Every structure is written in structure tokens, then in C-alpha cells.
Amino acid sequence: MRFSGKPLAWAAVPLALCLAACGDSDGAPVAAPPPIDVRVAEVGAQSQPERIDAAGTVALRRESPLGFTSAGRITLLSANEGDTVRSGQLLAALDPTTTAATLASAEAERARAAREYARSSELFEKGWVARPRVDSAEAAVRVAEANVRSAQFQLSNSRIVAPGSGIIIARLAEPGQVVAAGTPVLILGDASSGHVLRLAVPDRQAVRLRVGQPAEVSIGALGDERLTGRVLEIAGRADAATGTFLVEVALPADERLRSGQIGTARIIADTAGERNLSVPPQAVFAARAGEAFVYVVDSARNRVTLRRVTLAETTDNSIRLTGGLEPGEMVAVTGIDRLSDGQAVRVVRTGNSAPAAPVAATAR
After folding, report:
1. What domains are there in the chain, each with its CATH number?
2. What is the mean pLDDT of the chain?
3. According to DSSP H, which parts of the chain are helical?
4. Which intervals hold domain Multidrug resistance protein MdtA-like alpha-helical hairpin (predicted)?
5. Per-residue DSSP letters for 26-85?
6. What percent of the chain has pLDDT over 70?
7. Which pLDDT value is given to residue 147?
8. Is the pTM of the predicted complex or chain greater than 0.70?
9. Does 19 have pLDDT greater than 50?
10. Would you state the pLDDT for residue 355?
């Protein structure tokens, strides 16, 4: 079949008529949408130290679990929780029957090996036995002596004595109980080490802490009284389960402090060299994977620009950012759901014709 160009020309006529019908009959341009009224917040440049608040428990800095080096049945447990003990004081003991029998057997074997070695040495001097037999008897003596020392160690460690003066923090077993080797029976706190408040701090805050920083500590058991402490130790790695870092705050000497008390600490973070911005929560939307968006208001053009920002953390009245904005820029905090990139806006004023009060933000 053969086609000419005329049918195509005729087909274009309805399309042209349709386009003409769709346009404005008088040729006037389509009116732009009216500006949307918004209130704004200024990303300020005020610098103020960041405060880190964390909760934790009071503990003696050095708390040592005490246990036996061999398995057995406990026959003596004289220490109770809260007791003050002195260095060398007997705290617990196992039934010595098994360890005593082991020591007696080792000593008997050592005596037999010693007699065999003496007899072999005498026969060697007379030429009746070869040197390897003497060497074998000498090795047997050394093995028997090692077994005796091991048995003596086990017998001596069937008793727990206080390695130093302190306070019994926990009693984890009872007389008559059979325990395995190494099982903690008592926990002894070294009173001379002083009390600390152990805090679990998120990684973003832990990196801004330094040893020696002051801390304001509140212990619930002490009422409204505030104690002044200092950061004593910061863990070198995060807890595998929680992802937080253990921070120890040294507390002043106070006889009212007890292990296990609940307290909170407020620490002024080290923000030197860091740049931190914050905006009101109303300005941020579509947050995901540490990023979100805001509408930046261009006062010269009276339009908004969509801007991606990176998030750090959220507080009660602001969201801290690590990038995406500059101090002094204005962000929209109302009408977010009606805005789009390039949208014309009008900054609304309050009833007294004063500009809407900006929400101050920080930058360091």
C-alpha cells in the first residue's frame, strides 16, 4: 500500500485544534500560585558548651571477685554482705578431705621416687646399672616433687583469705554448696580505692569526654545534694551488646555512699574544634539513616530551597546537625507539608508587626 504526505497533514489538524482549545482564549499567561506564609528559625552562631547527662550506679573503683582454685563443698563462709574485713582474715573454706588426700598421695609418691633414685645411684656407682636408669629415677623424683607442690597449692587455696582491707559487696554462695573451680563466692570492695559513678555513654558523646573533666553528680539516696566529681576513666572500646562506652566518674569521700546506689552526672563536653548546628525539630522532615531535609528561606528572593542535612542527635527542643547549613541561614518551621523546592513564600509577622522570633541555634 502506498501513502502520500497529505493524510499526515490532515491528521495534524485535529491536534492543532485540540491544543488551541486547551489554551486560554485571550492568550493571557497562567497565574503563578500565591506565596505561602511561613515562620522561620535562624541558624545562629552562639557558642555554648554541650552538656552530657547520663545515669549510672555507684561502686567502689576496685571490686574483686574471690573464689576457690579447685572444686569442692563449702564448709565455712563467715563473711556477710556489708561486713568490713581486714587483710588476711579467713572468709571461706572448702571441705579439705579431697585436697588433703591428694597431698598425702603426692607426698607418698615423692618418698618412693626418692628411694628409687637413691638405690639406682648406688647401683650405678658399683657398675651394676646403666646411666639411663639413674636419669629415669631422677626425673621421677622431680615429677613427684612438682605434684606435691601442686597439691599443697590446692590445699592452701581451699581457704579464702582477704587480700586486703575492704567491704564485702556481695555474697554469692552458702555453706554446703558445691562450687566449681574459679566460681566467685564473695566480692570484696577495696575501701581505699574510693567510690565511682559508672555511666553508660553513647559513642557520639564519649568521644567528647576527657579524663579530668568536672562532673556534677546527683545521688538519689542523698536527696537534692550535689556532689562534684571528675571523669576518672573512659573505656577503650564500646560494649558489644549496647554500643555504649563505660565512663567512671570519681566521687568525693562520703560515708553515705554505698555500692549499687543510683545517680546521674552532668558533664561539660569537650567541643573544641567541632562545628555543631541545631535547628528546631519542626524544621526537619524525611529523616532517614542519619540524614534529613530542611527548607532554607532566601529572604532576597522570597523563595525556599530544599537542602539535605546530616543529623547528630535530638534533644527536647532541638536537633543537632553536623552539616548542610551555615550559621545565619533561615529555615522554615511552618507549612512544611505545603512547600516544594523553589516555592515562593512570605515570612509572617506576629500580631505586633514584629518579625517572627527566630529559634536560636548553636554553631561551634
Report:
1. 36-48+274-347 (2.40.420.20), 51-61+193-268 (2.40.30.170), 63-92+161-189 (2.40.50.100), 97-156 (1.10.287.470)
2. 83
3. 6-22, 97-125, 131-156, 203-206
4. 98-155
5. T-PPPPPPPPEEE-EEE---B--PPEEEEEEEEEES-EEEEE-SS-EEEEEE---TT-EE
6. 83
7. 94
8. no
9. no
10. 37
